[in-house]
Write a structure and sequence with these properties.
single chain; 132 residues; alpha+beta; 60s Ribosomal Protein L30, Chain: A; six-stranded mixed sheet; 2 helices; 6 strands; globular
């Protein structure tokens, strides 16, 4: 029986010891991205703004982490989104469509949650990305 290799990935400039988890983890053909908020990877401080700007920053973080792990947004199969206020749903969803326009789109759930530091959004995802 072969041992499954686990590889961790972090945004450029991020301190791997800043949080007690990996930002991204590849396990075989699967890539898991931990909940990403609109946070500056260098300072670990929230980058607060409109729901649109926070959503773009978060999805850019997801895209970068997926690429570091050898995957892409096109290979994402499941997305979990937490919004601080469901009144922001339509505006966040419009930005989300810019990043996930190709069909089939990943499955997704969006919930309202109390979020850290005044951020408006946090997103996690999983991607199936077979190794070459």
């Amino acid at each position: 029986m072969s041992e499954t290799i686990r590889e961790a990935f972090f945004l450029p400039g991020a301190d791997p010891d800043a949080w007690p988890y990996s930002e991204a983890l590849r396990v075989g053909d699967w890539v898991y991205i931990a909940g990403q908020g609109p946070v500056d990877p260098l300072t670990q401080e929230a980058v607060l703004g409109s729901i649109e700007s926070e959503t773009r920053l978060v999805l850019d973080h997801l895209k970068a982490l997926l690429e570091l792990a050898g995957s892409s947004l096109a290979e994402v199969v499941k997305v979990t989104v937490h919004l601080a206020d469901m009144a922001d749903f339509d505006r966040y969803n419009a930005v989300y469509r810019e990043y996930f326009s190709a069909r089939p789109r990943p499955v997704r759930i969006t919930t309202q949650a109390g979020l850290w530091g005044g951020i408006k959004i946090e997103v996690e995802c999983s991607a199936y990305s077979p190794r070459p």
